[in-house]
Specification:
Length: about 160
């Protein structure tokens, strides 16, 4: 939560909660329920074990019905395991590693509680980024006043 991704995700969750609750909440089995948020810092950018401990705390101590979050792929892969152990819905909204979805394909019964809300998986995200770069290439050339700008692509394997 100490980084922009966490702060902005929290602000968005609060806005959604307020809007949904103002409208009466969500309907579950014909009963209207208000949304309650629990803020837990996963510290996943710094520590994968902290992230798994945060997931465990959200489920066991805070009694979360489902979890939304995750940013760093390595941490989210580990958090996914904890959520699946408890059979809790986990809506991923940051990590792009294709293994997250592949887990569902390989072992649906275990991973059926995982959903990728955003972004695309890593290969899809890469394709999208290159498509966007292609569509803005003319503007980049004009802004830099170079016909062939030099672009560096940093990637992890």
């Amino acid at each position: 939560m100490a980084f922009a991704q966490g702060e902005n995700a929290w602000a968005g969750a609060e806005m959604a909660r307020d809007e949904i609750n103002k409208g009466g909440g969500i309907s579950v089995s014909g009963k209207k329920l208000k949304i309650e948020l629990v803020r837990i810092d996963s510290n996943e950018i710094q520590s994968v074990p902290d992230a798994t401990n945060a997931m465990e705390r959200a489920i066991t101590r805070e009694k979360a019905d489902f979890v939304i979050g995750g940013f760093r792929s390595e941490a989210v892969l580990a958090m996914q395991e904890v959520a699946m152990d408890y059979k809790k819905i986990f809506l991923g909204c940051g990590a792009a590693d294709a293994k997250l979805g592949a887990n569902v394909e390989k072992n649906y019964d275990r991973y059926k509680y995982w959903f990728r809300v955003a972004p695309l998986n890593a290969p899809g995200l890469g394709k999208t980024l290159f498509a966007v770069l292609g569509s803005i290439a003319g503007q980049v050339r004009a802004d830099l006043k170079k016909e062939t700008p030099k672009v560096a692509i940093l990637a992890r394997r």
